Amino acid sequence: MDITVNILLTIATAATPLLIAAIGELVVERSGVLNLGVEGMMIMGAVGGFGASYLTGSPWIGLLAAIAMGAVFSLLFAVMTLSLATNQVATGLSLTLLGLGLSGMMGTSFVGQPGERLPNIDIPGLTSIPVIGRLLFGQDPIFYISIALTAAVMWFLFKTRTGLTLRSIGDSHTSAHALGIKVIRYRYLAVIFGGACAGLAGGHLSLVYTPQWVENMSAGRGWIALALVVFASWRPWRVLAGAYIFGAVWIGQLHAQAFGIPVPSQFLSSLPYLATVVVLVLISRNKRLTMMNTPASLGQPFVPDR
Amino acid sequence: MSANQDGTNLLEVRGLTKIFGTLTACDHIDLDIARGEIQALLGENGAGKSTLVKMLFGSLEPNAGEIFWNGQAVRISSPGVAKKLGIGMVFQHFSLFEALTAAENIALSLDDGSPISSIAAKARALSFSYGLPLDPESLVGDLSVGERQRIEIIRCLLQTPQLIILDEPTSVLTPQEADKLFETLERLRSEGKSILYISHRLEEVKRICDRATVLRHGKVVGHCNPREETASSLARMMVGNEVQAVVRAPVEGIATAQPLLEIRNLSRKPATPFSIPLKGINLNVRAGEVIGIAGVAGNGQGEFFECVSGEVLQQDAASVRIRGKDAGGLTITGRRLLGAAFVPEERLGHGAAPRMKLSENLLLSRHATDGKAFVGTGGMVKSAAIYAAAQRIIEAMDVRKSAPDPEAAALSGGNLQKFIVGRELDRRPSVLVVNQPTWGVDAGAAAHIRQALIELSRSGSAVLVISQDLDELFEISDAIAVMHNGVLSKPMPIAEATFEKVGLLMGGAEPGHAEHTLETA
User: Fold this and answer.
1) Which residue among B27, B66, B194, B346 is buried most deeply as judged by most CB within 10 Å?
2) Taking a contact as any Cβ pair under 8 Å apart, which residues of chain A between 264 and 293 contact chain B?
3) Do the chains contact at B78 and A296, CB–CB below 8 Å?
């Protein structure tokens, strides 16, 4: 029984950073901006979070620093693509490259230093319930944030006027501009929110997942988060499902490799990607829903003609 | 507003100027709009009407000039400012969001913070009270042009503006829908609201407008009372010279001519929950004739066009035959290679790729049929050849533009339409299918396009025109069929057709379709 619970716990831990980064990117893309710099913002969050935690001794300050780092780094992207109308794909890619290099440089003195893990939050009474107690009520704080964030983004996008406005900008920025909606301002806020989320996801890596600093420790998770958003056809609950499927198959194949199942390890390592793609493609079969949810102006620079 | 009822005009414009590159779109324009009047803004395509109203609505910033609102100088720096002042606008190129529902589209332009859940009910109530029925839950992407326009109008009315700017509002409405709109406008006028009305339909301008300002080449060339003018005198003011009346020579021996386009028992299931199924459509279009299809927006005309053009393939290859060959299973290119040409309803994004040059747009629809002329060895595009062909079309159709080979999106709606129709006419196709050939096109250009369609048919081609403009269909068609709820009536020879008969069929009053199916089968 304990083994099962432990496996389930590691699944949640593996899925949480993907979920947070993907939810942030989902909001960005819903506003019509394609930020390919998730990986870069994530690793900046990781190094910022670890550094602040290491220097102050408080992982909580580290958590805030990770969020701030991601947000500030995304601001660079926002200024370039929104105010200067540069190509979003190229700018996003260079943001990732910059983030990977910059974080490596900033983190040289942290390599090999022991870090402090964010403590789990136990809720007296609930945590001691067998099996589900530890799963639902004895996790790290970022796990709770990730679930609350998903619910909040769902509510924001589909139940609030501001969310509707954001979606409309993603559908047609020219129409939105014609209605007097401040397209650029909304997109700035969306990009910064996405950056803060990516930073938080990075903070999860260096403060919870493996509380230490290793260069390149995001290991492609930012790219997986980006892919999740597309395969989930820009729907928050599908991002949640995708992140957990990925996490589950990822952990599952690690255990399978450990047991020595006679299947090539390369195949097992590719399983999480395959499984996630297959499941998300299957649930996105409804073309009409996909058409409704795809931001039509995604990736197009917006320059209001005056 | 009562504090301001001191004789000043609601809106005064002095010396408003807008320059794009080398083109002066608006050149020192003066305009006064009084309270409670419907003023018409007339002018050809490219005369500067759209530019002027965009400046009034804050979408464009003038280079020079002043705007006074209730006697106060104002700077309308954004559409938000215009809305706060009390200026509402119904756009010609719709500013709707296709992936959102009608209710959500309406909600977006209301800033009063009312909950989204209540807007659907509000929109439904308002749409019925103004006689513009609307399903708030439907997705805009699934709606016809006419239905989309209803959303635009309702969206504008819900904001209770003082000045309403309507850019070509009736171009996609049926006579009955237009009548309803005029009632609405008259009601708004009696409530003391002012309306700036842009239209190419001079008859309706005469009918509802109190005053008219005429623009030509970016300048105000005159004011008049449209009620005291005739349609042709108004047209003369706009164009600067006489508009040629469309001439349709009667044709002999059509009954024995070869049918070039045959539709046989064409049916189609609805593609989306909101679209119309087509039910057993039969139609022959013979060499030398123009057949018009009338109908209220959203009765299956769009679905029918998609089937005929090959955007949607048919199960039964014989249900669409072009020049005697089964074409139901062929793609658009396959059907073009048989000698057919198609002009869809939507100009931007369907008829033309907005961010591509005109010459490149020319290649898009003609790379297969004119491959030898436009594409060289190894698939290299012959830029000089497509440029020359584009210039030939631009000249033949009198397309007004600001650059030698501009992007499609840079043209005004009417000018782009002239180019798209000209692109297909230039091929001399033996079958031409056109959906809404002159929507939003001014009188002079519309006459030009209509005459070109008639001439194409008289040179031995079959021409099928789908239109919501009954005047147009009566002007150019040799026979008119009516589409209602996915069923096509038997074509009525023009000599027998009257507005009343066609109007009844458009409303679905005459259930005589079954008889027709038997006859042609």
Assistant:
1) B194
2) 288, 291-293
3) no
Predicted interface score ipTM higher than 0.95: no
> Whole-angstrom Cα distance, residue A79 to residue B395?
44
User: B322 pairs with which residues across the strands?
Assistant: B261, B325
CB-based contact A17:A221 (threshold 8 Å): yes
Write down the residue that tokens 């190129």 correspond to.
Answer: B93
pLDDT given at position B517: 38
Pairing of β B431-435 and β B278-286: unpaired
The residue with tokens 């386009």 is B261
Specify if A254 maps to a domain. Answer: yes
pLDDT of residue A61 exceeding 90, the answer is yes
Strand bridging mode B211-216 / B38-42: parallel
Domain count of the fold of chain A: 1
Domain with residue A164: its CATH number is 1.10.3470
Q: Which residues of A touch B116 (CB under 8 A)?
A: 159, 161, 164
- Select from B97, B116, B139 the Cβ nearest to the Cβ of A175: B97
A243 lies in a domain?
yes
- Domains of chain B from N-terminus onward: 2-239 (3.40.50.300), 257-339+430-521 (3.40.50.300), 352-428 (no CATH)
Residue-number span of the structural domain to which A124 is assigned: 2-293
Residue B140 — very low, low, confident or very high, per pLDDT cuts 50/70/90?
confident
For B65, which DSSP code? E
| Contact between A296 and B99 using a beta-carbon 8 Å cutoff | yes
Shortest Cα distance, chain B CAs vs residue A298, angstroms: 13
Token couple for B68: 């006074």
- Which chain A residue's Cα is nearest to B94? A175
